[in-house]
Structure formats: C-alpha cells, structure tokens
Amino acid sequence: MRPLLIASLAWQDYRAEARLSACGVLALVAVIAPLLVLFGLKFGLVGSLTERLQRDPGVREIIPLGGGRFNAEFIHSLAQRADVAFAIPRTRQIAATAELLMPLQGRGVTVEMLPTAGGDPLLGRVAPPQGLQDVVLSFTAAEKLGARAGDQLQASFSRQQAGQVQWRQTPLQVTAVLPLAAFERDALFAPLALLEAVEDYRDGRGVAALGWAGDEPGNAAQRVYPAFRLYARGLDDVEPLRELFAERKLLVSTQAAQIAQVQSLSRNLDLVFWIIASLAVAGAVAAIGAGAVAAVERKQRELAVLRLLGFGSAALLLFVMLQALYSGVIAAAVAGLLYVLAEHGLNRLFMQVPGEYASRLLPLHYLVALAAVLLASSTAAALGGWRVSRIDAAQGIRDV
Amino acid sequence: MISLSGVHKTRGQGAQRYSLRIGQLQLQPGARVALVGPSGCGKSTLLDLLALVLAPDGAEGFALGGEDIAALWRRRALDRLAALRSRHLGYVLQAGGLLGFLDVRGNIRLPRQLLGLADDGSVERLAEALDVLDQLAKKPAALSLGQRQRVSCARALAHAPALLLADEPTAALDPVNAERVMQLLLREAEQRQVTCVVATHDETLARNAGLKVLRIACRRDADGGVTATLEQAA
C-alpha cells in the first residue's frame, strides 16, 4: 500500500468532484460552527463570572459571627491549612478604632483598624506594613486626610478609666494607600502588634514598646481573640471551610451561596452543551457515514479500476476515508473562521469589563475540536466505506 | 508464463447457468493469442480468471509466473493477488477504464507509481508511440474514443508487465481506428516481449494483426444452461 499515492489520488478525485465535496464540507460546517459558538459562549460566560468572583477577595472571606474565644495557636493552625490563603487574629472591635490627624493640614478622620500581614488578599500587590508604627491607609481614609504614601500621621487612642477619659498619641508612618476597589471604608491596615497594643492600652495595661504606662501586661500566649480575618484559597474551598466551622458550632458568614450559583450555572450549561453536542455529533457521524456509502456507490467504477490495477481493499478504504478527512479538515478550518467572526461580534455586543469575554476559546479547544472532527470523520467514513471490500473488479469494470 | 489445466467456473443456476471449462491453456512468454467467440460465450470470464479478479470454482493447475494462483484463491490471499496484478498484469478495458479524475499522464503513470517505479521517461515514450503525446495534460473526458483506447493501452504497458490482457479493446471503435489501435498495441507489446491475450469477436481483425486464434465454443445443455469450452491450443 502506498499511502502517499493514495492520498494524492484521493485528493485529485476530491478536487474533481469539487461541488459534491463542498456539500460535504458545508454539512460539517453546519454542525461544527454552532457547536464552537455554543461552547465559546459557555466557556466565556462562566469564565468571566468565575474570574469576577476570583478577583474579589471578599467573596472568599469567611467572617465569624458573634463573639468567639480563639487563641493565637488555633488561628495559626487555620492559616497553615492548604485551603486557607490568609488568616490573622482580630482584636475587639471597640478597641480597634483610631482617630487620625494630619498635623499639617489639620484634617482628621476616625478609622477602623484592621490587622494585616504578608499574604493579605486585600493588600494585593501593596507591601504590608512592617514596623509597629507603619500603616497602610484605605483610599477613602487617605482622601479625607489628604495623606499620601510616605506621610506621617498623628494617631490618638482614648480610654476611660475611673470615669476619666485618657488619651495617648503616637506618630504613624503611611507606607502605602490602597486602591478604592480593594477596600471602600475608612480604615488603616496595621501589623497585629499595633492592634494588640491599642487593645492593651484600652484594657488599662501598659505598652512598653510605645512608652505607655499602665498595669502589668498579660501573658501573650494566653491572649484571647474574639474574631479573625480569614480568606479561603480558592472559590471551591469556601464551602468545605464553612462546613468545617459549622461542625465546630461556629457561626460564620460566607459567600458560599453566590459561588454555588455560578458553579451550578456552569454545571447546567455544561449539561446543555453536551446534550446538544452529542445530538449534533451523532447527526454528523450519520451524515458522513451516509456520504461514504454514497461515495462508494458513486465511485464503484473508479474503485473497481483501482482494484483491477492492484490496489487492495485497505488502500480503497483509505481512499474513501481520506476524502472524509479532507472534508473534516476544511470544515474545521471554515468553522473555526466563522467562530472567530462570531466571537468578535459577541464580545463587542456583550463586553462589560475589559478583560472579560462573552465568548472565548483557548487554543487547546480548537485543537480538541479539530481532533474530534477528524476522529468522527474517519470513523464514520470507515463504517460507511467498509463496502469497498465488496467491490468486485470483475463486475465493476464491465459497465465501463 | 501462464498455465491453466482443468480450470472451471460456473455462474448462475438452471437455465441461467453459465459454465466455462478450460481443459488446457499454456502460454509461453511473448505468446500472442486472440480469444475469439460469439459475445456472451465467456471471453470476459476467461480474461477475468487470467486477470486474477475472478476466483475459479476449481482448478487442477493454475500458475502465473511460478505462483500457484489456485492456492492463493483457496487461501483468499487477496492482497497477494492484488500485488501480483500490479506487478505482472496490464489490462486494456473495452471502453478504456481510465480514471476521470486524473489527467492522461496521471492515468498512464499510475501503475508505475503503484509499484514505486521511478519516472524513467517511459510514460512519454509510450505516449509518443501510441500517438497521445499531445494529450498528456488533458482529462480523459476531453479525448476521443480512439485516443482513450490508446491511453488505456499505454497504461497497460507502462509498468512493463509480463502479461497483457485486452477485453474487446477495439469494439467501440470504427474499423480504421480499430485496426490502428490494435496494431499500435501489438507493436508495443511485441517490442516488450509481453505475452498478449486479446478477447475479440472480430476474428478477421485478430488474424490480420497476426494473433494466434483460440476459439471458445458454446453449447446449450439439457438443463438450458450454457457450457463454454476453450478450444485446445495446438
């Protein structure tokens, strides 16, 4: 058998029958192009929704509700879990506020204090504050103060002791300002140590590091935190973590429902796609098979002559299959082109956010589509073209 | 070159039955014979047997170039038979049997390509000898019947086969063309020392061309069927 010779003969016959070949190609394009558009829509839509969820760290946040009593060790063990991206203890809410003042402008604002450290998803690419008196400001807080990175602030913390209001002030260094999208309220992000110091001060204890006098500080190892900031690693980790806390009778608030919604949309669209795809592919396979049967019937004379010349059954089957493959390759290329046009149009129509797509395919998807088309074409042609083995050279050449 | 003894083939049943019996047929290399007989007497059947496309029902001996054809058919060694066909046989069909999707050059060189033979100019030489050199780039549909037959002859000889089979190669042509095609075919075959078997109903044409005539005789049997017998070669 000479595959190259057969491929060349099959191609010349395919070209000689250009009109019939075009019909075969169009029939395939009619199946492949809509499937590509459908899959592109599914992939683009679900991808955009998922990406939107992934971009917003708030979706992955797990917020403990009600007062809890956690020690540092427990929260540290949470932070070590593979499904947790970031976990840090919080001090009491009431102790976690600060009055900030820009001495030069004379502007002030009251902000909430959030503990942070390296890996905090809210900080994103902003470097976390390192020293005890370093802070990162939220966009709105910085705006109200007129502060920029590198500025120095005056922070005041108050407490009531024996009916007397007392104040302590300390300078803070602004190391960075977060973008508005990262956090929309007035806040400062500081190392946990600063929040602990403020809480100690409120509780009447002294803080040696800031030179604040007071009672003897408590044992750091036995410190109890009422809450923590925790972010799951991925969207899929939120629900298992929620279940973990529920098992421990710990009430938490999550966005698990929102995530589940997108995931169920993805699953349902998958199902719809595969139902349509399998129906369409079954139809295409039947059409290609029928085309091969018709081709063998129509080319009986040529195939008989080829057999008389000494081509074997396998060579004749290859001849028929190759012609189906030619149709498959051309149809896949045309369908790919049509899809790209459709994708362009759909994305222009539906694009809301730059970087998001209504319809989208990866190079891998094109390759998979091509491989599927070729596999379906050759299988169907082999099934339909099997009759070539029954072509009788003696019969076929008589009615020449 | 080729030797058949006690080969028979039957098609159909009852009044539709047709049987061909070949007692003895020996052809030496370079032998040139014509199978002559009325139409329907089984010339094509014998050619198909020789062309290795029709399985004999039984054969005491059937050898081609040293190969036991009867055994190959018994084993259904179809690929081996196909290989023998492409190597040793050239076949001229009644109406050419050219492939419409190939041009004349593609048709003539196809048997050579199938054998993997290099292009040695023999396609052009044959085309010139058979007077179709100008037609090499045309599709068969653009040729006259006579030209098609000459292209078919060129294709049958292109790969230097040992045995040339021709089934009524001139039946569709006018007498002038018929004689010309026959002469060209036999001249080229003779130069190449090819064994020729030409089936024709035209005994005069065969004799004029210098072919040795073998007759196939038909007789109707009691059951209404027909039995054809090859006249013993002298």
UniProtKB/TrEMBL annotation, chain B:
Membrane-spanning ranges: none
Xref: PROSITE patterns: ABC_TRANSPORTER_2 (PS50893)
Keywords tagged on the record: ATP-binding, Nucleotide-binding
Molecular-function annotations in GO: ATP binding
Annotated InterPro entries: AAA+_ATPase (IPR003593), ABC_transporter-like_ATP-bd (IPR003439), ABC_transpr_LolD-like (IPR015854), P-loop_NTPase (IPR027417)
Residue span(s) of domain ABC transporter: 2-234
Cleaved signal peptide residues: none
Name of protein: ATP-binding cassette domain-containing protein
Organism per entry: Pseudomonas farsensis
